[in-house]
Design goal:
By secondary structure, this protein is of the alpha/beta class. The protein folds into two domains: about 60 residues, Alpha-Beta Plaits (2-Layer Sandwich); about 250 residues, TIM Barrel. It contains eleven helices and 14 strands. The strands form three sheets. The protein has an eight-stranded parallel barrel with strand order 7-8-9-10-11-12-13-14, surrounded by seven helices. Helix 6 crosses helix 7, helix 8 runs parallel beside helix 10 and helix 10 runs parallel beside helix 11. It is elongated, with a radius of gyration of 21 Å. It binds phosphoenolpyruvate and manganese (II) ion. The site of manganese (II) ion has 5 residues, from loops.
Length: about 350
């Protein structure tokens, strides 16, 4: 890939000429408009491209080859942060986005009760799994479309946009009918058919890091989605496998800083799956805010002991409300905020 940085005063005609050159060569073009200039990303698909030829075209400031394996995801391609609206909230900006709700949608009353509680506590987006990726085939697999319907009802009642997981390409259209944000779970991070499908859908996506994945592999997966022109991608650090057994996973706080450095995509932290125990969720959540996360996704259940999945890592609404206040203080200390 090469990045063509156009001069600030480049005309539409000059930009179109560069795009036409790339399209003639059957290269893929990704446009990015910065405040003072246009950046044209040209994916040459491994073909040797004639940089000099582009550099001589009118209106072109300079041409930079992107050497990283991920291209559109890289900060080289887009130096400024990716910012986009989710519901009434904006992700990637100064304000942090708080997503909260149960691991699984269990019933209409459970999700509606939780939606009201997390909204009251300060959450901006409701989470809840209808299609659940369970380690055991004998565990509760989620309510499926019925669960999506209950999520939509909870959105109608509270005004909170909804995020929910999609596990297979064939179900992307159905989940898109209900969800404001598609979640790709850790177990499916490298499900390339699914990444292509959510990329094509043009729906906002939260891409969780695989539990044994390198940061680079995670960014390559984001690249799959971005390669379809879907620019609304969030990354989510949810803990990785290590030798430690005191917690469910080891929260890779470094990954938040690294991802923010290497990419322009918003980074969301999931302290619930990262720790696996409600007692540690608040500490990991506050650390994420300090580390520069653009938002959090936190499991909350009105009666964790009765939860059909992940009860031991779920916060009760009161604890969650207290945590939001604490996170707000940390956010303000690092020049951010939680509305
Ligand atoms: C979840 O969000 O409930 C979930 C299954 O998360 P992960 O894919 O990170 O394990
Ligand atoms: Mn869960």
């Amino acid at each position: 890939m090469m990045i063509v940085i156009m001069k600030a005063q480049a005309t539409m005609k000059e930009k179109s000429a560069v795009i036409a050159w790339a399209e003639d060569a059957e290269y893929k073009v990704h446009l990015s408009e910065a405040s003072d200039h246009t950046v044209i990303g040209i994916v040459t698909g491994g073909h040797p491209a004639n940089h000099e030829q582009v550099e001589r075209m009118p209106g072109v400031e300079r041409v930079v080859p992107v050497l990283k394996p991920y291209k559109i995801a890289s900060r080289e391609f887009k130096p400024g942060n990716t910012i986009f609206p989710v519901g009434n909230q904006t992700v990637g900006d100064k304000g942090l986005v708080i997503m909260a709700g149960p691991c699984s949608v269990e019933s209409r009353s459970q999700i509606i009760e939780t939606a009201h509680a997390v909204k009251e506590a300060g959450a901006h987006i409701l989470r809840g799994g209808a299609f659940k990726p369970r380690t055991s085939p004998y565990s509760f697999q989620g309510l499926g479309e019925e669960g999506l319907k209950y999520m939509a009802e909870a959105r109608e009642e509270t005004g909170l946009p909804i995020i929910t997981e999609v596990m297979e390409p064939a179900l992307v259209p159905l989940v898109c009918e209900y969800a404001d944000i598609l979640q790709i779970g850790a177990r499916n991070m490298q499900n390339y058919a699914l990444l292509h499908a959510v990329g094509k859908s043009q729906h906002p996506v939260l891409l969780k890091r695989g539990m044994s994945s390198l940061i680079e592999e995670w960014l390559m997966c984001a690249e799959y989605i971005l390669s379809h022109g879907n620019t609304r991608v969030m990354l989510c650090e949810r803990g990785i496998r290590t030798f430690e057994t005191a917690t469910r996973n080891t929260f890779d706080i470094n990954a938040i800083a690294v991802a923010k450095h290497l990419t322009h995509l918003p980074v969301i932290a999931d302290p619930s799956h990262a720790t696996g125990k409600w007692e540690y969720v608040a500490a990991a959540a506050k650390a994420s805010v300090a580390a520069g996360a653009d938002g959090l996704i936190i499991e909350v259940h009105p009666r964790p002991t009765e939860a059909m999945s992940d009860g031991i890592q779920s916060l009760k609404p009161e604890k969650f409300a207290k945590l939001v206040k604490e996170m707000r203080a940390v956010a303000q200390a690092v020049g951010r905020d939680i509305e």
